[in-house]
Amino acid sequence: MRDTIFALSSGAPPAGVAVIRISGPKVRFGLETIVGFVPAPRTAKLATLRDGSGLLLDHGLVFYFPAPASFTGEDVAELQIHGGRASIAAVIDCLSRLPGYRLAEPGEYTKRAFENGRMDLTAVEGLSDLIRAETEAQRRQALGQADGALRALYEDWARRISHARAMIEAELDFSDEEDIPGSVSDKIWPTMEELASEVASHLAGAKAGEIVRDGFRIALIGSPNVGKSSLLNTLTQRDVAIVSDVAGTTRDVVEVRLDIAGQLVLLQDTAGIRDSDEVIEQEGIRRSKAAADSADLVLELRDARLLENNKEIESLTDRTTLAVWTKADLVSVSEPATPDGAILVSSVTGSGIESLLACIAQKIKECQVGADEILPTRTRHQQYLSVCHRELVTAIETITAPTELRTEYLRNAANSLGRITGNVDVEDLLGVIFSEFCVGK
Ligand SMILES: Nc1nc2c(ncn2[C@@H]2O[C@H](COP(=O)(O)OP(=O)(O)OP(=O)(O)O)[C@@H](O)[C@H]2O)c(=O)[nH]1
Ligand SMILES: [Mg+2]
Predict the structure, then answer these.
(1) In degrees, to the nearest 5, what angle opens at C-alpha 439 toward C-alphas 436 and 441?
(2) In what helix (H) or strand (E) does residue 234 lie, and over which residues does it extend?
(3) What is 123-205+375-434's CATH number?
(4) Residue 306 CA, ligand 2 centroid: distance in Å
(5) 276-320: per-residue pLDDT in tens?
(6) What does the pLDDT read at residue 331?
(7) Dihedral (C-alpha) 141, 143, 147, 150: value to the nearest 10 degrees?
(8) Which residues, other chains included, contact 131 with Cβ-Cβ below 8 Å and sequence gap of 6+?
(9) Which residues line ligand 1 at a C-beta cut-off of 6 Å?
(10) What is the bridge-based pairing of β-strands 15-23 and 56-65?
């Protein structure tokens, strides 16, 4: 018999209320022992909790969710008790003494839910993302995925492929009989072409999905002393990076997390780029360049006083670079006499910061243009989707290959989708996916 598992499922104590969740075959026995009865399914019941010797532990609300209509698919109970450390410890201690009971491992409830078919792997990942979501965009994306949006899409695709295989195989079986014309394939292959292009356009949204989940990377790049660290501090409204008038203050890449218009942004301050003989500074500059290369957007900072010299300055603004003129308070020009889209800011007065934020929000939006609501969010999804697409295209294009071989490609394509949802052997993936969870989920 499986262990009955229990854990604190609510946040760190002390808190007003703590929720202890119990799941497994001995839930009813545990309830009878601790509260003296099993409440009606899914109904809150006020109860007095006592340990085996009758000692009062706490008063609280008790819920019972019989299998299979519970989070894990097993019998589940939830105890809502006072959220003090000692109250929680007393109840946990009492549960740990019950035969067949043990503390749950991180993610174990969700793992049981997956094993009992209550969730597929994409929903598991969505739930893990939802628990970690910091921004509105992350929350929306994770909730959609936890609710089964990706599962519905991939299972529908897998069904269409299976249907195509079945039709083709049926045609093979009857190919000896003369009155079955070879028209099945004529209908099936175009539908597989349609599917391949749906997979391709879904895959094209992977970058957008990843940006929502993992954050939009912005690197602050420019000469020493141009005001990169000052701008980082102004944007985060915190004193994160050291600011000084010594050129070459920043050496390491300093990264902060920001919420801009509901999107997670990873903002990186870097070492000022110049020719330097100094080993540590050279390493800092190497890191600056690497940060610029991997960024979704580079803010290229320049001192606005250069504008006053009326020097011809080459535009750097393109899709991934935004020119930002700093120290606006030190110059008399109000609008930069520079290419469109350049922005003039001051970290001292705060002028131009609002337009800079609006510009960044616009850049993030541009990365997501044309992206569907439902996006792949992880490299894992992308890998299997690419395999699925490749196998579909191979099946479609190898017209001269034997039909058996072409249906085999289709089978590979469907299996690859099955690996995303967890319908096809994924034993090797489970450890990685469930290790993301905290205890109690
Ligand atoms: N007046 C004015 N001074 C600024 C502004 N931004 C930065 N400074 C000053 O410029 C100097 C350099 O600022 P930092 O933010 O350290 O510049 P940095 O680009 O990070 O420099 P490195 O780390 O050396 O590459 C400091 O003395 C700041 O006080 C601004 O908007 N207006
Ligand atoms: Mg700096």
Answers:
(1) 75
(2) helix 228-236
(3) 1.20.120.430
(4) 19
(5) 889 999 999 999 999 999 999 999 999 998 877 766 566 555 668
(6) 87
(7) 20
(8) 437, 438, 441
(9) 222, 224-230, 243-245, 247-250, 271-272, 326-327, 329-330, 346-348
(10) unpaired
Residues of the chain with pLDDT under 70: 174-183, 310-319, 333-341, 370-372, 426, 428-429
Give domain limits for the chain.
4-104, 123-205+375-434, 215-367
Q: Taking the domain 215-367, which CATH number applies?
A: 3.40.50.300
Residue nearest to atom 4 of ligand 1 (CA): 327
Mutating to test ligand 1, I would choose from 220, 221, 230 the residue with most ligand atoms within 8 A of its C-beta, which is 230
> Which of ligand 1's atoms lies nearest the C-alpha of 346?
31
- pTM value? 0.82
Whose CA is closest to 430, among 387, 384, 380? 380
What is the structure's pLDDT at 200? 96
Q: Are 396 and 192 in contact (CB under 8 A)?
A: yes
Q: Which helix (H) or strand (E) holds 10?
A: none
